[in-house]
Amino acid sequence: MTDATARLRITHPFHPLFSHEYRLVEFSRCWGREHVVFYDESDELISVPVAWTDLAEATDPFVTLSEGRALARPTDLLELCALIKEVKGT
């Protein structure tokens, strides 16, 4: 459920609804990606990726480019290696 007053604006420059603002109906997850759901001007239910709206948070470029195919970022793996070495005492 979402706040009844929550709004979103389409920010994807090539989307036909670019710069239009709508009332957020809900967040959904489809094929591993988060989407927002809203009604357009003709009362049709629309779903677009959160990344195409002003609700998208600034994301790590690696996460964006890997599109969920990587289990961890290289920097996270290096930190894990250092932690393992520390625990082992080597």
Topology (elements, then pairings):
Elements: E1 7-9, E2 21-30, E3 33-39, E4 45-49, H1 61-66, H2 74-88
Antiparallel strand pairs: 1-2, 2-3, 3-4
Can you walk through the features of this model?
The protein is an alpha+beta fold. It has two domains: 1-57, SH3 type barrels, CATH 2.30.30; 59-90, no CATH class. Helix content is 23%, strand content 28%. The chain has a four-stranded antiparallel beta sheet, with no helix packed on it. The radius of gyration is 19 Å and the shape is elongated. The model has no long low-confidence stretch (mean pLDDT 86).
- The radius of gyration computed from the alpha-carbon positions, rounded to a whole number of angstroms, is 19 Å
Major sheet details: 4 strands, antiparallel
State the helix count: 2
User: Secondary-structure element sequence?
Assistant: EEEEHH
CATH architecture of the largest domain: Roll
Low-confidence segments, given as residue ranges, are none
Gross morphology is elongated
Q: Give the beta-strand count.
A: 4
User: How far apart are the termini?
Assistant: 50 Å
Helix content: 10-25%
